[in-house]
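Internal tracking record. Fields below are filled automatically when a chain is submitted to the structure queue. Please do not edit lines marked as system-generated. If the sequence contains nonstandard residues, flag them in the REMARKS field before resubmitting.
Queue: standard
Priority: normal
Entity type: single polypeptide chain
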Amino acid sequence: MAETDTYTSPRNTARVRFAATGKAFADLSFEDLQSLRDHIAVEMENVKLIDGTLKMNPRIKAVDWPNGWAALTCRSRYFEDREAVTFSHKTFVGFAGWADADNVKPIITGFHAWCDTLTARGTND
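SYSTEM-GENERATED OUTPUT FOLLOWS
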């Protein structure tokens, strides 16, 4: 189905996957966010999109965390600070709203791998 299908898009599938971990934004540590950034960075390195220039930014933006929001951003040869993943305290998770179906793939793939680590760790830590 097309990326724009509200119910089966890769972005919505990733949101459902995160919900299945039993975690909420407020449960995440800064180390969890760093781990997510690192998982996505590996995927970006593997697929070499935008002529190999798509990379994660090292800095994580967090505002009034854990009650506000946090953003992991990325860069390429023609932009410096675009959303890769954004968490809202109101349970919304945003995924690269700027990206087409191809450019969002390493972000979604890294996110799923990260969710696997949260699940493996358990929900009671």
